[in-house]
Write a structure and sequence with these properties.
- This protein is an alpha+beta fold.
- It has one domain: Alpha-Beta Complex (Creatine Amidinohydrolase).
- The protein contains four helices and 13 strands.
- The chain has a five-stranded antiparallel sheet with strand order 6-5-7-12-13. A three-stranded antiparallel sheet has the order 1-3-4.
- Strand 5 and strand 6 form a beta hairpin.
- It is globular and about 45 Å long.
- Bound molecules: magnesium ion (2 copies).
- One magnesium ion binds near residues 111, 174, 205 and 239.
- The site of one magnesium ion has 5 residues, from loops.
Length: about 270
């Protein structure tokens, strides 16, 4: 069932989304060669704690997971697509990191992710990340009253495929509300004009996941969480929580711009 949110609830969800935005900005500032993934998780924990927010990631255990998630941040490095578990790994020059964070504030959830390169980026990684951001922007542009879920999915998938990237099936966006994962699912590929009609008050997480090598296959790492590309190529992931309103899409997890700490490798960050 899809719950339509009131305007005041959407405002409350914006407040939760802003905590997520601040956490991701802080993580990005802290991410540098030699910094460990667990240290980045600590950075995000501090932002959530300062805001009085809870983490919907910490202790999360969906049906596919063998153990509760142990962190407030997913850190997916290089060939990891999503759901990477922060551990003692120290970032190296040129690593492509996807950071995914959630927050629950006053009972409302927000969910967002960014991808960026630590240190000196490879041109192919810059292109991959730029495409992820463009796919996200296209999905948000399609998140309009009167459109359908398939229009969002089609917009996202078209950008990814046109650039030659793989799109892992089975994972994608979702409704957001009092819980982080609600109905409806928002696939990263689909047919326009199909699926549920979008209405004022729906809140969706839109989250393209791109495989640089162009194949769709993925598998789970031994930790029971991390999803890795089958072809060993790098992956990128971008996500915003977006409210569908009569006045157009409202990005609830928008990050404050400009952020002088942001490297020039994320041209579309904070759309
Ligand atoms: Mg997320
Ligand atoms: Mg999500």
């Amino acid at each position: 069932m899809v719950e339509l949110k009131t305007d005041s609830s959407i405002d409350a969800m914006y407040a939760a989304g802003q905590v997520v935005g601040r956490a991701l900005t802080a993580v990005r500032r802290a991410a540098a060669v030699g910094v460990s993934l667990r240290e980045l998780d600590e950075v995000a924990r501090q932002v959530l704690a300062d805001a009085g927010a809870d983490s919907p990631f910490l202790g999360y255990r969906p049906s596919f997971a063998t153990a509760p998630f142990p962190a407030v941040l997913c850190t997916s490095v290089n060939d990891a697509i999503v759901h990477g578990v922060p551990d003692g790994y120290r970032l190296r020059d040129g690593d492509l990191l996807s950071a995914d964070c959630g927050a629950v504030l006053d009972g409302w959830a927000g969910d967002s992710a960014i991808s960026f390169v630590v240190g000196e980026p490879r041109p192919e990684d810059v292109r991959l990340i730029e495409t992820a951001e463009r796919a996200l922007a296209a999905g948000i542009e399609a998140a309009r009253v009167g459109n359908r879920i398939g229009d969002i999915a089609h917009a996202v998938g078209t950008v990814c495929r046109a650039a030659g990237y793989g799109v892992p099936q089975d994972f994608g966006g979702h409704g957001v509300g009092r819980r982080m994962h609600e109905d409806p699912p928002v696939p990263n590929e689909g047919r326009p004009g199909r699926g549920m009609r979008l209405r004022h008050g729906m809140v969706l997480a839109i989250e393209p996941m791109l495989v640089g090598g162009g194949t769709d296959g993925y598998h789970e790492a031994g930790d029971g969480w991390t999803l890795l590309t089958d072809d060993g190529s790098r992956a990128a992931h971008a996500e915003h929580t977006v409210a569908i309103t009569d006045r157009g899409p409202r990005i609830l997890t928008a990050r404050q711009q400009p952020d002088p700490a942001l490297a020039p490798t994320a041209p579309a960050a904070g759309v």
